[in-house]
Records
---
Amino acid sequence: MSCEEPTTSPTPENNITVVSSDGKEFLLDLKLTEQSETLARLISNFEYDRTDVKKDPVPLGNITSAQMQKIIEWLQHHRYYPKWEQNDIHYSTSFTFETWVEEYLNIPNNEMFELLNAANYLNIPRLFSTICRIMASRITGKSAEQIRTVLNIKTDVKNDVYTGIPIQEDSSSSEDGMSEISLSPSPPPI
Amino acid sequence: MTVSFPLLRLPAVALREVLLNFGTMDLLEFSFTSTRVRDCVFRSARLRVIEHNVEFLKEYPHIVTVFKNDDGLNEHKLEWEFVGGQMAGKSHQEERRIGCHRFEKCHKNGNIIQCHFHNPEFGASVVFNHISKIFQGPVNLFLDLSHIRNLYSILLNQNISECQKLEVYEGYNNEQNDEDLYGILDMVNIGKELKAYVTNQDEIDFDQICHLESLTLENANWMTLPDLISLNCRYGSFINHKFGPSDVNSFAENWYNSTNRTLAKMQLGWDVDTELDLKKSKLEWKKWDPKIRSRCFYDPSEPYHSNRIDCSEGYDITRSDGLTATILVRDGFECYALFLVWHDPYPEKTRLNQLRERMAEEFKKFENVFENHRGYEKYVTVGKIVKSWIESKEIAHLSFEEWKYALDYITEDTCHLYNRIVKNVNDIQKEIKLWESVDNTNNCIL
């Protein structure tokens, strides 16, 4: 999907200021905030879309300036895209992504994780869904053993040293055990 | 340096979204990675399926999990098939572990896992325990008593014995099995439907079946008229029984004097032609009046080509609450009496509306797929055909050869998607024509 991007110069009335967790301020065009359901609802509730209402900066305590920068890049790119509908994923039978999206999400796993959390917090469905699909694309077609390798999952079934027969460890272990799951630094190409 | 991705620290909604993007086989493989993943991730994700079919019908068990596709109308399946010695010929064999059980000889082919295990019935029980933990949905249990070695060990598994539907067959070799339906029903808790094609059962506990929505019994010789009357099923079918014409009359009279609004179809079969003399009935049976009901009864439990029952030869009674019932006797090769209740006196109108809505949904899917591929060079040929179908809102059969040729150029996934929509549209078109002819006949008569 590609969209023409007409050049418009944002006026101060059409902006709001958001403040990241590290105190950096970002000026956001109201048109861009439409892609975030959280911001759109906030703007609607405080009537920030009216020119006669004083707009206080919006603190985003869960989002760092680096994440905000990345999100603004996404919002700018998708500025003139049609509104996201859940149906859009229904017919995506293969994991194919725009070249721009592939480049945009060619980031370390920790940044991807933070970006997904930020997309979830700000409720940006297109970004959220795209990252989830990217994550799924790294698993698809793999066997359990290969998934263990890719996600660095430690199996909880061990073989008996004498008989070679599998012995199951206690599966009711704490949540800490689950956090051992990790993505390898160089996932296979999308 | 390894940068970890703490997948399980994702918010539940994000983790679920990632899982929903997995293919069904990917989900199954992911669940095999560790017991913790299976028990924690899948429990929180709550992935629902349409149904699980657990089949002990042949020499080896077969487990089929049916999923609803994203489009909401189509289905796809994940199958675990136990096989015999033919696994030796398969080149790519993998091991699967479920808890402390090791399934060493497994072969994956698309959405099917074929597996050789020394005790297939026990293996099926273990595999189904695993599958039912990751995918939640109702269970349909199919048993052929002539093939099962240890029936009661299967039924001891509560994941299997708590089922929505039970079908029991005795096969051809019915001397070998000592199990009776009474014992099976004692261990199985059925939610909705029972079909039992077992000839030699003496009696079953009426309380085990009286609540069922759909009931088919090959042998209902134990059943008395009070039993028949106190059933609360929507669909009933009894192939062998002790009921005679006077019992059918009593059954009809009881329905007429009751307020029962559940029953839709009751079928009583006989070995030989049975004359049902309605003159002996206290009720006033009347010949078909097109102003009261349609010619054809709609039976949703049958496939589209046989879901209409011609009731022009039937006799009707109408209750004080306005509900009409028809009694229809079929003789010849199949001898049976049908008692049909017209909850919808003109089902063709409702059915046609449903079918037209489904047709519109299918064409909406066509449009979506077409829009997604618009402009791609390799979709030009197939796109032209699809576009003409979308514009005319009909699939032209003449272009079928051309259609197959056009599909050669596109990817396998899209090809499946198009073919699935075409099949659905074709079936709907055929059923629409059948119901339209019923509607036209009614209109002509009226």
Note: The CA atoms of residues 107 and 185 of chain A lie 10 Å apart.
---
Amino acid sequence: MNEINDIKEKIKKESERFFSGFNNEKMSKSVLSKINSNYGEKRKNKPSIYKITFNSSIAARISVILACFVIIITSVFFFKGKALYEKNDMMGKPVSQQKIDLNDTSYNDKWITFFKINKPNKVLQGNLLAVLWETGINGDYQMAYSSMFENSSKPEPVRIIAFNNEQPSIIIISTKSPDKQYIHYRVVGYSGSRIVAFMEQNYVTGGEIAVIDGAIKETRLVPGIIYDKKQNNDMHEVVTYYIPYQINESGDIYTSVENLKISKGDYIAVLGNENTPVETLTPNLLVDWNPGSEFLNDNKNTKFFRTENTGQEEIYIKPLYEGGQGRKISVLIQ
Amino acid sequence: METLSRIAVENKSHKEEHLEYLMLRFGKKVYQLAYYFLRDRQMAEDIYQEVFLRVYVNLDKFRQESSYYSWIYKITVNLCKDYLKSATFRRIVTVGTVKDFNESCRESNKLFEQVEGGEVFSHVMDLPEKYRVPICLYYIDDLPVSEISDILKISQNNVKIRLHRGREKLKKLLSGSTVNE
């Protein structure tokens, strides 16, 4: 240590001599010159030091590290059985939510929530999942009904059809695809103690849904009309009025419609939670109609009529059991 | 718009004046420190330029949490370390490995160091970089252990260890040659 301290002055003197040739003024001028040529602000031309520092070797190492990280994450998902394409933000992301009142005896809260959802086939379709929530015995929400609406982007407000007595309401859950010009909809209500779909309709071209005098007015476009024997490629507007009914435990029939005004050429369908006989009193105004599968959509509890002439007609929904009360609906065909 | 441009120009000139002052005060020290690391004048000059360009760019962001001196020295150390690790630096070697490069570099630089500096200074520069830098900062720049620790981002204990080992190695180097007065 003393030896070093002894030559410390020598080290300093020699280093001063060595560095005395350094021209600080010249160096500072070169720095300022670079700054004035926008080097310092825009850094257009990176100095060689940067090219040396950030080079392909480092980039390659970073790429390898990132690749290993991706492989590790992929392996974790693979061995846990999860699909890689699953994105949490596409599974269960709520799009809209609406509180509804079914006027039932449960007095529990009910909500309809629409979620974005994809099928597990790795194809992004932009589907919507509608879930009807109700509060259970312990107060927690449970799923009472759910239905997927394919290739739909826009949920519509839930429409509620009230019945004029102690019967619970029926709701219409629908979605629209404005760009593809079709709608999907579900008519949902109680069947016993369960909430079920009375009717499901998908890909209703040019579809519109409205509630008119307690009936569901559906408008759709169809190519040609077999009834009119006009087999052509033109799209025709078809209006169908769905009259919902419910049968209670006593076998009594209840409907949301008492009087209905329709146009000649429109169709009527009687739609219920159970399959029950439906008759008309005047055979020459409303005629039984057996539509194609695109109308039926596997909805078995639906009876269709087509309008034959104008006039006043009555539709009678007969009870299934003796002692049950039927219901009449007056229809004015204009 | 004209007022804003004028303010921008005035701000820029203040900044340049500030930088000029810093280069005047610390420029030589930055160059020396870079030389301690790299033992090459051209590379040390490159480091000098890059250090003060960075200082200029970040001058507005400098919050005076440390002294300008400490800040500038740290930039210098970081750039030197990056340069030493870089593959391009290694590719400068025309013959094989970095060791070979150091060998050939030492031969040519040693001549400069001996002629323009002196034998003792040359032997100091012959030390391995991890001992050479603390030795130079301590004995040439008169920096205390605490400041060396802060600049090199190593513990004070580590600085003392390196100083001790550097001194031992320097003793061996000096004893192996005749020192001309």
Note: The first helix of chain B runs from residue 2 to 38.
